[in-house]
């Protein structure tokens, strides 16, 4: 038997060896096999990373065909191209009248889950150590990558003062999927402390002052802090800030090295410093504050001085002056040489006259209305407070010219020309200017015939239906680019990663029409071989697999992989979800999709503080302020969450809130994806609340509920809910007529089944500018649900938002609610328990009232007793006030809480002091300051027709009871005419609605 062996090393050099080198002995050994029939092709080991059918399709070497050394080389190259093999050897041996070819292979390994464990001090944390390894999921594994990973982790440990740290990799091999999971066992060792830094170079400053700026040493006690990467960076920044404070803008501070002394366990940083000269920046001809000058001239931020940065500073100063109305400003700079450790940069400013941009005139536009163009422009005419001189500069003008041109070009006006002209002393008024935009639209070009070639494995008709460049539509290269992205995205979604797009155009037979030809090169389609999930510890695999949007046999779609990644994050149990394709560069038609999870902490704690400042004051038993007095109520909220219960994604949350007005605790158990349906969420909750926010009484509520939430669409949801609660009122705090106390102070049990419909089409839930938000809540309380009172309840609210220009918004909100009692022998209005009635008024419903002060009042004490029907309408005009962050609101609120729906009235005036069923109006002004968590708002409201009432002036509810059944007859001098208050104010975060 004659054995021929071809030994290949993995990589391009081996392939080059095969192609270029042809040793004479190899040719001699194989000469008797050249041209012989291939009797069989055998692989060792028998289990290969590729399917037999797949191997047979890809190999140029075929059974029954003549064997040629060139074909063997091509077969080896083809196998290497799959990326699945680290090493391939080929044996040939005679068999009857042919030859048996044996491929002896060693598989490649691919990186799977990378984790760390062991005895570690943070920082660095486990995630940082994993990132430092730079072992990317799905990429080929090599010993060189492992060495680099260990070095990276060692470097990170040392940067954090852990010089004695040790890293040991442990491997877990998944031979079926050629995946290697790596766990680094890390012993971080003890953390070193900083030592006195070594300062080298031209310091220019006192070394003690520099050492103090590092803040490596603790304040007062002067012991050295433990070393960490963050403290090192903060120390270097502190030194740089010190030099910047001394106007040494060209100073350079660098960390040269850190010397570790094991005996003292100290780390000695060596800093190389070049102090540089002091640099003074002056403005001549116009005064600019030092703080603004530092923001305008980039040498302060870059800590370098060169002509490019100084020229940029001159442009910034000119733009700033033009934004202040100095539209003719000219700025030049002059740099002085260093003398006596000092250099000067002078900006020579000729500001010219201050102007106002009074008008922006656009002419020649026929296709687009002027309003459409104006809303896209950056130039702004002068208006009160926000832009007192307007917003204008040459850069802004050029930007608006480009904006208008691009808009026209994207709609088929290929030859559009936009020119500008500035007119001074506009309409004869000195200092006023106008900017004229002249638009020469030119002809509009349209798409003629669209031809798409090369589409073989997708539906051409569907692709054509998605195009912007349809026949008869305006032609532009913008639309062609959009269509290219659409087509390639469609191919990518269907597993064609190498699809390409080319296009060409030519004039159509018809004038101003362009014929288009799109040529698609599809390339090879790739599929999902299988989906592999790693990193699960407590989470049940079934929870993950039900969330997968991709499965074996599907086209290899990056969009589907990203969607699955989002769904896995949406489970709320993973802190990190990495997604990758194993062996992404391998030339195979099917590939593994990998998801590597990092489970989130199972326990979390959230603490929040806040306050309410409005008319909420008064004690629990005092009767002297039924309309409320100015008060301040601090608030603390603490939430404890336990996630991923039993590894199935369920959660348990304890939410508590405590303030001077309200103490509340809610325990909620949530079951997401109920019955494996991603649109269903089941929850159980129990609540205990002790509330004082309604000044008429203090109430205690114990409640249990079960709710099923169903997500119908992205914007629409349904909530099915059953609630059973017990409301009890503290009789000692009930500020109403003694005749009503026995009736309204009784504890009441309510069992109610309800349905809530929500639809949210707002563009931004925190600060909406467009869209609509609607909620409708229907409830039924009946004795069959264990309720002591039978009633139906509906509460609906609709809010809509309309953008008027760039930043002006018209917003409105309407709220309607009704409670109707049945199966009650007495007055239906009195059948509704006091704590179940509608209480309105305040920051979120009607700003003409203090909190919960709207509606019917007790005829003796004047305190609100709630109603069974509510109607509120709020309208706001939201507009910018000063700059980009400060805005204002003009608002009108109207409505009231009524005794019942039969008492509803649009009447504007109060008939007498016992009449509260009429429409109350309020107008006001609000200030909004934009913050990352939402607008900070202050509202001042004036109630035009606030209600009058009689209030019983007494020191306590005991005095009221002692006065008998008719206190006003017993003590007429204590029954005083009062008003709910014309002026109200509110302070909170977030828009009103």
Description:
The longest helix has 17 residues, at 143-159. Helices cover 20% and strands 39% of the residues. Residues 1-29 have low confidence and may be disordered. The chain contains 21 helices and 41 strands. The chain has 993 residues and is of the alpha+beta class.
Low-confidence spans: 1-29
Query: Given the structure, what is the number of helices?
Result: 21
What name does the CATH topology of the largest domain carry? Porin
| Gyration radius, rounded | 39 Å
Tell the overall outline.
globular
Which percent band covers the strand fraction?
35-45%
Question: Strands, helices and their partners?
Answer:
Layout: E1 4-8, H1 12-20, H2 24-30, E2 37-44, H3 52-58, H4 69-81, E3 85-95, E4 98-107, E5 110-119, H5 126-133, H6 143-159, E6 166-174, E7 179-187, E8 193-194, E9 198-202, H7 207-214, H8 229-245, E10 252-261, E11 266-274, E12 278-284, H9 290-296, H10 299-302, H11 307-323, E13 330-335, E14 342-350, E15 356-363, H12 370-374, H13 394-409, E16 417-424, E17 432-440, E18 446-453, H14 460-465, H15 477-493, E19 500-507, E20 513-521, E21 527-534, H16 541-545, H17 558-570, E22 574-581, E23 590-599, E24 603-615, E25 630-645, E26 650-659, E27 662-672, E28 680-691, E29 699-711, E30 716-729, H18 741-744, E31 748-760, E32 771-781, E33 791-804, E34 808-821, H19 828-831, E35 869-882, E36 886-898, E37 920-929, E38 936-943, E39 948-952, H20 957-962, H21 967-970, E40 975-979, E41 983-989
Parallel strand pairs: 2-4, 5-7, 8-11, 9-11, 12-14, 15-17, 18-20, 21-23
Antiparallel strand pairs: 1-3, 3-4, 6-7, 10-11, 13-14, 16-17, 19-20, 22-23, 24-25, 25-26, 26-27, 27-28, 28-29, 29-30, 30-31, 31-32, 32-33, 33-34, 34-35, 35-36, 36-37, 37-38, 38-41, 39-40
Helix pairs in contact: 5-6, 7-8
């Amino acid at each position: 038997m004659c054995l021929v062996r071809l030994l290949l090393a993995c990589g391009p050099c081996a392939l080059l060896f095969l192609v270029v080198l042809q040793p004479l002995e190899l040719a001699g050994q194989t000469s008797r096999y050249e041209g012989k029939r291939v009797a069989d092709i055998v692989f060792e080991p028998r289990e290969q990373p590729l399917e037999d059918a797949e191997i047979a399709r890809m190999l140029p070497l075929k059974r029954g065909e003549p064997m040629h050394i060139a074909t063997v080389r091509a077969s080896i190259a083809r196998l290497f191209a799959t990326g699945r093999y680290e090493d391939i050897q080929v044996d040939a041996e005679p068999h009857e009248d042919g030859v048996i070819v044996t491929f002896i292979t060693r598989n490649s390994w691919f990186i799977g889950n990378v984790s760390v464990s062991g005895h570690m001090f943070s920082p660095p944390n486990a995630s940082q150590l994993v990132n430092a390894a730079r072992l990317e999921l799905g990429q080929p594994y090599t010993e060189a990558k492992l060495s680099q990973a260990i070095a990276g982790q060692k470097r990170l440990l040392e940067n954090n003062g852990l010089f004695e740290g040790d890293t040991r990799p442990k491997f877990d091999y998944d031979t079926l999927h050629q995946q290697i999971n790596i766990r680094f066992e890390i012993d971080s060792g003890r953390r070193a402390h900083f030592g006195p830094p070594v300062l080298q170079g031209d310091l220019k400053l006192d070394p003690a002052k520099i050492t103090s700026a590092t803040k490596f040493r603790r304040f007062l006690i002067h012991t050295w802090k433990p070393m960490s990467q963050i403290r090192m960076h903060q120390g270097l920044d502190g030194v740089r800030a010190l030099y910047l404070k001394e106007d040494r803008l060209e100073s350079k501070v660098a960390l040269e090295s850190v010397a570790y002394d094991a005996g003292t366990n100290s780390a000695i940083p060596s800093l190389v410093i070049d102090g540089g000269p002091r640099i003074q920046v002056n403005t001549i001809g116009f005064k600019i504050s030092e703080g603004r000058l530092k923001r305008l001239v980039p040498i302060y931020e870059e800590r370098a001085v060169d002509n490019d940065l100084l020229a940029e500073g001159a442009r910034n100063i000119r733009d700033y002056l033009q934004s202040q109305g100095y539209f003719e400003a000219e700025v030049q700079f002059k740099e002085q040489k260093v003398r006596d450790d000092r250099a000067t940069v002078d900006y020579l400013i000729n500001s010219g006259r201050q102007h106002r941009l009074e008008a922006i005139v656009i002419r020649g536009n026929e296709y687009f209305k002027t309003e459409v163009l104006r809303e896209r422009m950056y130039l702004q005419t002068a208006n009160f407070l926000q832009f007192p001189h307007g917003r204008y500069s040459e850069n802004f003008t050029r930007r608006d010219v480009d904006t208008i041109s691009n808009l026209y070009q994207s709609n088929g006006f290929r030859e559009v020309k936009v020119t500008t002209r500035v007119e001074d002393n506009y309409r004869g008024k000195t200092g006023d200017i106008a900017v004229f935009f002249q638009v020469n639209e030119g002809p509009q070009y349209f798409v003629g015939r669209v031809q798409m070639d090369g589409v073989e494995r997708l539906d051409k008709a569907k692709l054509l239906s998605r195009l912007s460049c349809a026949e008869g539509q305006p032609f532009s290269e913008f639309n062609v680019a959009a269509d290219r992205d659409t087509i390639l995205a469609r191919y990518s979604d269907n597993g064609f990663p190498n699809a390409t797009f080319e296009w060409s155009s030519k004039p159509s037979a018809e004038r101003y029409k362009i014929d288009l030809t799109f040529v698609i090169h599809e390339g090879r389609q790739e599929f999902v071989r299988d989906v592999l999930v790693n990193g699960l510890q407590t989470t049940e695999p079934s929870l993950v697999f039900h969330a997968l949007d991709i499965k074996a046999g599907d086209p290899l779609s990056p969009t589907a992989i990203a969607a699955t990644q989002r769904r896995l994050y949406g489970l709320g149990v993973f802190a990190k979800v990495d997604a990758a394709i194993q062996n992404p560069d391998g030339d195979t038609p099917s590939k593994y999709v990998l998801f590597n999870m990092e489970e989130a902490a199972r326990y979390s704690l959230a603490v929040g503080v806040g306050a309410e400042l409005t008319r909420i004051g008064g004690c629990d038993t005092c009767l002297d302020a039924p309309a409320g007095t100015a008060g301040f109520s601090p608030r603390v909220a603490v939430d404890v969450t336990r996630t991923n219960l039993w590894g199935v994604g369920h959660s348990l949350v304890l939410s508590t809130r405590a303030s001077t007005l309200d103490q509340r605790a809610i325990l909620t158990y949530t079951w997401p994806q109920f019955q494996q349906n991603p649109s269903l969420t089941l929850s159980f909750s129990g609540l205990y609340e002790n509330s004082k926010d309604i000044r008429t009484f203090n109430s205690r509520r114990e409640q249990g509920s079960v709710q099923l939430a169903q997500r119908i669409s992205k914007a629409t949801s349904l909530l099915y809910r059953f609630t059973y609660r017990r409301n009890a009122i503290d009789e000692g705090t009930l500020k109403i007529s003694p005749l009503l106390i026995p009736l309204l102070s009784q504890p009441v049990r309510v069992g109610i089944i309800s349905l809530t419909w929500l639809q949210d089409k707002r563009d931004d839930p925190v600060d909406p500018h467009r869209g609509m938000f609607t909620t409708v809540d229907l409830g039924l309380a009946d004795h069959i649900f264990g309720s002591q009172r039978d009633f139906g309840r509906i509460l609906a609210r609709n809010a809509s938002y309309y953008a008027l220009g760039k930043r002006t918004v018209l917003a409105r909100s309407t709220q309607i609610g009704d409670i109707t009692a049945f199966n009650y022998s007495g007055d239906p209005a009195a059948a509704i328990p006091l704590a179940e009635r509608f209480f309105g008024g305040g920051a979120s419903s009607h700003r003409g009232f203090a909190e919960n002060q709207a509606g019917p009042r007790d005829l003796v004490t004047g305190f609100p007793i709630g109603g069974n029907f509510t109607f509120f309408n709020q309208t706001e005009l939201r507009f910018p006030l000063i700059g980009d962050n400060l805005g204002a609101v003009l608002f009108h609120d109207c409505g009231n809480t009524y005794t019942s729906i039969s008492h509803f009235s649009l009447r504007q005036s109060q008939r007498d002091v016992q009449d509260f069923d009429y429409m109350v109006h309020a107008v006001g002004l609000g200030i909004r300051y934009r913050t990352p968590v939402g607008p900070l708002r202050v509202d001042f409201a004036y109630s035009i027709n606030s209600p009058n009432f009689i209030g019983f002036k007494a020191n306590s509810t005991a005095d009221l009871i002692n006065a008998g059944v008719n206190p006003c007859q017993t003590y007429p001098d204590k029954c005083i005419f009062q008003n709910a208050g014309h002026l109200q104010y509110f302070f909170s975060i977030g828009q009103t609605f």
